[in-house]
Write a structure and sequence with these properties.
Blueprint (H helix, E strand, L loop, with lengths): L1 H15 L10 E2 L3 H24 L4 H4 L6 H25 L10 E2 L5 H32 L4 H14 L5 H22 L2 H21 L1
Parallel strand pairs: 1-2
Helix pairs in contact: 1-5, 2-5, 4-7, 4-8, 5-6, 5-8, 6-7
Amino acid sequence: MRSLVEPLILYFVLFLSGFFPRPVPGFAGFSVSSELARIFLYNIPSLALIWYLLFRVKSLREWGLGLPGPKDLFSLAAAFPGMVLTGFTISAVSSLFPGVPEHFRVEAPGTMSGWLVLIFSCLSTGYLEESFFRFYLHRKLEDHGIRPGRIILMSTLLFSICHIYEGPWGCLNAVIAGFLLSFVFVRFESLHGIAFAHGLYNIFVYASNSLT
């Protein structure tokens, strides 16, 4: 249990503390100012905290992390299509159950500057969540001798819990996506690939919303 103290505290502070209240399922407009606030007051400081804690233990080289390379392209190619397929499948299945609340959606920006902010927001969110749920959490638990299968299950569970605000279908999507991202991370040992896949998927979701 001692191996879980720091990760659980960090998880609560970053993802469950309520500093940025979660919206209820539904549809909301895109706000450039809100996204900028989230980037600079939440995403970047949270990412800095995670890596500060990692750097206190090992350097980038010791953690096995460097510049993006071929393995990152492989993990991106494995994760992104799987996330898109999952999203399409859940969207199709959810239409068969009109009584179940739909997941939370935000409309796409209407300006070029809004899209630039959105792209940076999605990529920084991808790096933040993958740095914690995959790299940090996997490495911390791995160092304490926990088996990869259990780490994947724990990472997926925590990832899905903090997406409950998206409603039943959004939470189910997070379960499948979390398992896929964890599996790809274990297979390719690639943070950059899954972070970009996560960010690109979020951008894809916004783009899809603009067409509906």
